From TrEMBL:
<dbReference type="InterPro" id="IPR015422">
    <property type="entry name" value="PyrdxlP-dep_Trfase_small"/>
</dbReference>
<keyword id="KW-0663">Pyridoxal phosphate</keyword>
<keyword id="KW-0032">Aminotransferase</keyword>
<dbReference type="Pfam" id="PF00155">
    <property type="entry name" value="Aminotran_1_2"/>
</dbReference>
<feature type="domain" description="Aminotransferase class I/classII large">
    <location>
        <begin position="30"/>
        <end position="392"/>
    </location>
</feature>
<protein>
    <submittedName>
        <fullName>Amino acid aminotransferase</fullName>
        <ecNumber>2.6.1.-</ecNumber>
    </submittedName>
</protein>
<keyword id="KW-0808">Transferase</keyword>
<dbReference type="InterPro" id="IPR015424">
    <property type="entry name" value="PyrdxlP-dep_Trfase"/>
</dbReference>
<dbReference type="InterPro" id="IPR015421">
    <property type="entry name" value="PyrdxlP-dep_Trfase_major"/>
</dbReference>
<dbReference type="InterPro" id="IPR004839">
    <property type="entry name" value="Aminotransferase_I/II_large"/>
</dbReference>
<dbReference type="GO" id="GO:0008483">
    <property type="term" value="F:transaminase activity"/>
</dbReference>
<comment type="similarity">
    <text>Belongs to the class-I pyridoxal-phosphate-dependent aminotransferase family.</text>
</comment>
<dbReference type="InterPro" id="IPR000796">
    <property type="entry name" value="Asp_trans"/>
</dbReference>
<comment type="subunit">
    <text>Homodimer.</text>
</comment>
Length: 398
């Protein structure tokens, strides 16, 4: 009897998660994992925010059911997400917010929605982009193309190249994937003026923006990080936004996200809501309750909201300090390499400029784990191990 699964081949391991497994087995006491995109404190742990603990205590005392949420999720959560993402930029009756299992879940719902409702479109992604973006669209059968994003110096935005690619190659109705802030993997974001030029091309080419908004509050602030998204919305009356609250609420394991759809009018929004619900129903059916309850509890209580903003500010400031400490410490090593460009970047990630060979040497000799592209998770650095890290980098650069 032949076995139906005998022809299956082992899938290649995820590049980043595979590094984490190797890191766990490494006995080097000075080891550092700068690959996985999670915030860490000085001890190397991913902390639970105090405000989250307070919200969970309140939920435990008041929660009355473990019944299913509606297909589109918690109404209270949806309204909080709408306000956080859009502010007053879009009329409420033109927006649809559907709770999803993390930002990744939101992107998959968006991709499946495109496949069934917008079957002729292709998605234009920045080069480079988050490694999972192309895989998500491929899994949904949505074709993709790339536009220039990173300049030849690999430390700045190639705005001219980006706009030229879109003007010359994108078709009307295509989707443009944009990182709302804290570009992953480079940390290189458009300026306010850059966003205006991008928005003009979106309008000229009649592109549908799909904005991956996974790091709101980790760049310059909650409202400041929404400037690009809201600038885009001044030039188009339709958009998709995928939000994640893994980072800014520290809810990595709770899988809390959303897909927000902006329609031209209330009637279109109602129709779109029904199709998004249909997409969800055939995927995971109903979203999980707990993480969304945490977010809604915090944003529904002024005191807890204020506490959350303080803790988020603290995380953001620590990342900035780590960038500054790394740049200064690298100067002291005498390596002759100026990493000052990291100070212009935002969020948890940065392109370091390290080559795959140098990255491999850092891992094998020093127990420092970095993605092969040279992308580093700044939030994984340690103040106490900074000298060791910088001396190791200087060694592989020499």
């Amino acid at each position: 009897m032949s076995h139906r699964f005998s022809h299956l081949e082992t899938a290649p391991p995820d590049a980043i998660l595979g590094l984490s497994e190797a890191f766990g087995a490494d006995s080097n006491p000075n080891k550092l994992n700068l690959s996985v995109g999670v915030y860490k404190d000085e001890t190397g742990k991913t902390p639970i925010l105090e405000v989250v603990k307070a919200a969970e205590k309140k939920i435990l005392e008041e929660e009355a059911t473990k019944g299913y949420l509606p297909i589109e999720g918690s109404p209270e959560y949806a309204e909080d997400v709408r306000k956080l993402v859009f502010g007053d930029a879009v009329a409420q009756d033109r927006t649809v917010v559907v709770q999803t299992p993390g930002g990744t879940g939101g992107l998959r719902v968006a991709a499946d929605f495109m496949r069934t409702q917008l079957p002729q479109v292709k998605v234009w992604m920045p080069n480079p982009t988050w490694a999972n973006h192309p895989a998500i669209f491929m899994s949904s059968g949505v074709p993709t193309e790339t536009y220039r994003y990173l300049a030849d110096d690999r430390t700045s935005l190639d705005l001219d190249g980006m706009l030229q690619t879109l003007r010359e190659s994108a078709s009307a109705g295509d989707v443009i994937l944009l990182h709302g802030c804290c570009h992953n993997p480079t940390g290189i974001d458009p300026s306010g003026d850059d966003w205006k030029q991008i928005a003009q091309v979106v309008e000229e080419k009649k592109l549908l923006p799909l904005i991956d908004f996974a790091y709101q509050g980790f760049g310059d602030g909650i409202e400041q990080d929404a400037v690009g998204l809201r600038t885009i919305l001044q030039h188009t009356d339709e958009a998709l936004v995928c939000s994640s609250f893994s980072k800014n609420f520290g809810l990595y394991s709770e899988r809390v996200g959303a897909i927000c759809l902006v329609a031209a009018d209330a009637e279109n929004a109602t129709a779109a809501r029904s199709q998004l619900k249909r997409t969800v129903r055939t995927n995971y059916s109903n979203p999980p309750r707990h993480g969304a309850s945490i977010v809604a509890t915090i944003l529904g209580d002024p005191q807890l909201t204020a506490q959350w903003k303080e803790e988020l500010e603290s995380m953001r400031q620590r990342i900035t300090r780590l960038r500054e400490q790394f740049v200064q410490t690298m100067k002291s090593t005498g390596s002759g390499h100026d990493f000052g460009f990291l100070l212009r970047q935002r969020g948890m990630f940065s392109y370091s400029g390290l080559t795959p060979m140098q990255v491999d040497e850092l891992k094998s000799k020093y127990g420092i784990y970095i993605v092969g592209s040279g992308r580093i998770n700044v939030a994984g650095m340690s103040e106490s191990k900074m000298q060791y890290f910088c001396d190791s980098v200087a060694s592989v650069l020499s």
